[in-house]
Amino acid sequence: MVDLLVIGAGPGGYVAAIRAAQLGLTVACVDEHATLGGTCLRIGCIPSKALLESSEKYREAKEDLAKHGVKVTGVTFDLAAMMQRKEAVVKANTDGLNYLFKKHRIRHYQGRGELRAPGKVVVQAPEGNSELEAKRILIATGSKPASLPGIKVDGEIIGTSTEALSYPTVPEHLVVIGAGIIGLELGSVWNRLGAKVTVVEYLERILPTLDGEIANEAQKIFTKQGLTFRLGSRVTGAHVENGKAVVTVAGSEALHADRVLVAVGRVPNTEGLGLANVGVKVDQQGRIVVDGRYQTSVAGIYAIGDAIGGAMLAHEAEEEGIACVEAFVGGYGHVDYNSIPAVVYTEPELASVGKTEEQLKEAGIRYRKGVFPYQANGRARALGQTEGKAKILAAAETDRVLGVHIIGARAGDLIAEAAVAMAFGASSEDIARASHAHPTLAEVLKEAALAVDGRALHL
Ligand code: FAD
Ligand code: NAI
């Protein structure tokens, strides 16, 4: 019997396993895959960022280097080599996990885990079933792509992000269903590599979870980059006819494409997990219901990450895993959900933390706003990346930072400062008074903080 059995070796599960081992617990981790790392390392965060980087390098060589006086002619790319590099990046990360599991003496069982009773899990593996016993069980089984009625995902012409990370050739026309994070990141990859990309979105805006002003600016930039948006369009079906996809859209003509990426969200991965065997409750969306300590409706069974409610982000899953196991040992664990950042790794990147303007308005919270454009930042000019802006929203009475939203070069790195500021309850004045190295993109954030008080220096 181990102290903790984790089901799922994604960022939620593997981080929880490592932290539990650091705290002196004996730990085992079951995952159906031979490779550790879950969705994020195998078919999510890591491979998508590898392809975003490679495709952006190609675009830059073709379109931007000349602006720096660097002449390159005959720029081409080798898709197979790009894919091989992506696989190597994934392998370096997953191999790293094998090492960490060994270092912390975490036993990895390959197979599908099914709950049989509190403290008992059956692992179904090709070589036979085995039963494991644990004092506590942590479910970290993550999520899988959602689909829509009328869409038949065949895993080839009509597929999900998993297929879009590995197309063997560049599609002539790619239809992306859903202008969320996956649709825009992977739509950008294939657009840069030469595909015509049409993004069909049900809502009247893109990136519905982000601040409206920032998403609006992003839409203009992505349109300039060549993405076509069909907003306010509800996809009613997609099927394959004579080797091509036909995507039907309510109230307008069907779209024809050689590949379709269905990116309409993700759903918790709890099928076959045996939740009903032990009485673990799920909500109407199939998310496992947990209390403030991530305990499910059954004592001794806990759940974290994409399998429960909240944002489906790797770092949120990690924080939940840490808080959950720290509470086992120390009696206390906490996640500050308000200061969890989100990043969209397009070019430019989008990043946010805290409340959007729409959320503040809806809640009737009075705020002041400071905006600073990249255009007025010396480093952005030197980089030749002047698109975008940073926006800081601070409480009108107290000046406490309530939300930070950035679109622009390296926004994903800049947001870390904002997340730390929010975690420490900083005011916009605190950010404005802190020295920021010159010339850096971080000065965009300092200037946006000054702008909250109407005193940006370089505008
Ligand atoms: P997962 O990573 O989904 O891991 C769960 C694991 O459990 C999987 O290996 C699964 O096979 C296994 N499993 C499930 N059921 C069982 C069972 N019964 N028995 C055994 N094993 C089981 N998030 C970010 O923060 N940043 C990004 O840049 C980012 N990019 C993404 C790009 C793509 C294309 C996708 C699809 C997702 C991306 N995400 C990103 C989201 C991120 O991958 C998830 O939020 C994160 O992986 C959730 O972690 P998790 O540990 O909850 O679950
Ligand atoms: P999403 O929730 O971000 O976007 C889905 C989009 O599809 C929404 O805009 C929605 O309005 C639209 N949609 C739904 N039904 C539709 C229909 N019938 N027709 C047209 N559009 C429709 O989901 P996505 O992009 O699939 O990503 C899933 C999750 O993965 C996200 O929640 C995100 O947290 C995570 N992720 C995070 C990344 C990051 O942090 N950089 C990168 C990729 C994924």
Summarize the SSE layout with pairings.
Layout: E1 2-7, H1 11-22, E2 27-31, H2 38-43, H3 45-63, H4 79-103, E3 107-110, E4 112-117, E5 120-125, E6 128-139, E7 143-145, E8 158-159, H5 161-164, E9 173-177, H6 181-192, E10 196-200, H7 212-225, E11 228-230, E12 235-241, E13 244-249, E14 252-257, E15 259-262, E16 266-268, H8 275-278, E17 301-303, H9 314-330, E18 342-344, E19 349-354, H10 357-362, E20 367-373, H11 378-383, E21 388-395, E22 401-408, H12 411-423, H13 428-433, H14 442-452
Parallel strand pairs: 1-2, 1-6, 2-3, 6-17, 8-15, 9-10, 9-15, 10-11
Antiparallel strand pairs: 4-5, 5-6, 7-16, 12-13, 13-14, 18-19, 19-22, 20-21, 21-22
The structure holds flavin-adenine dinucleotide and 1,4-dihydronicotinamide adenine dinucleotide (NAI).
